[in-house]
Amino acid sequence: MNTDTTPLRAIIVTPEQAPQIKPFGLDMKVLLSYEASRGATSVLLAWHKAGEGPPDHVHFSQEEMFFIVAGTYEVTVADQTTTVGHGSLVFIPRNTVHRFRNIGETTGCMLDWTLPGGQDRYFRAIAELSADGSFNNAKVQEISSQFDTNFVAAR
């Protein structure tokens, strides 16, 4: 539990100022970190090449939202699959299995919010595995479990 009572600081971050990370080989920028919001939220800007996207997964302790900035994605939330593009918002309640994939022919881009925050810490940890050469399935599973990203068997 955060006991810091000082007021939160206003933050303005341009894409050029946002720290870059590269988890799972993806290009991402951290627009708002868990730490900067004291855990309330985190916001990532992520680019996905044609065909890229995660398999089915679920978060038990956070909601997640995607806002499509560019491209065309196929998004599955629970048993509903929809094609979404620029300007679309996807809200995923906790405990809901979901996945997405860039089905366009060009690189897509989305904003990814989590409430409370934490996805930035997850993706930073995964990026660090890749950077130091220790990337392997066992470590990815350990980090995924630590940060409430739970992959489920393909349906």
Q: What would you say this structure looks like, in words?
A:
This protein is an alpha+beta fold and 155 residues long. The protein has a single domain (20-149), classed as Jelly Rolls, CATH 2.60.120.10. 15% of the residues lie in helices and 36% in strands. It has two helices and eleven strands; from the N terminus they run E-E-E-E-E-E-E-E-E-E-H-H-E. It has helices spanning 119-131, 137-146, and strands spanning 20-21, 27-32, 42-48, 57-58, 63-70, 72-77, 80-85, 89-92, 98-102, 108-115, 150-151. It has a six-stranded antiparallel β-sheet. A three-stranded antiparallel β-sheet has the order 7-6-9, with no helix packed on it. Helix 1 (119-131) packs antiparallel against helix 2.
CATH topology: Jelly Rolls
The CATH superfamily name is Jelly Rolls
Spatially, the strands of the biggest sheet line up as 1-2-3-10-5-8
Specify Rg, calculated over alpha carbons. Answer: 15 Å
Q: Alpha-carbon distance between the termini?
A: 37 Å
- DSSP helix fraction: 10-25%
Shape: globular
Average pLDDT value? 93
Task: Write out key terms for the chains shown.
single chain, 155 residues, alpha+beta, Jelly Rolls, 15% helix, 36% strand, globular
What would you say about this model in short?
With 155 residues, the protein is an alpha+beta fold.
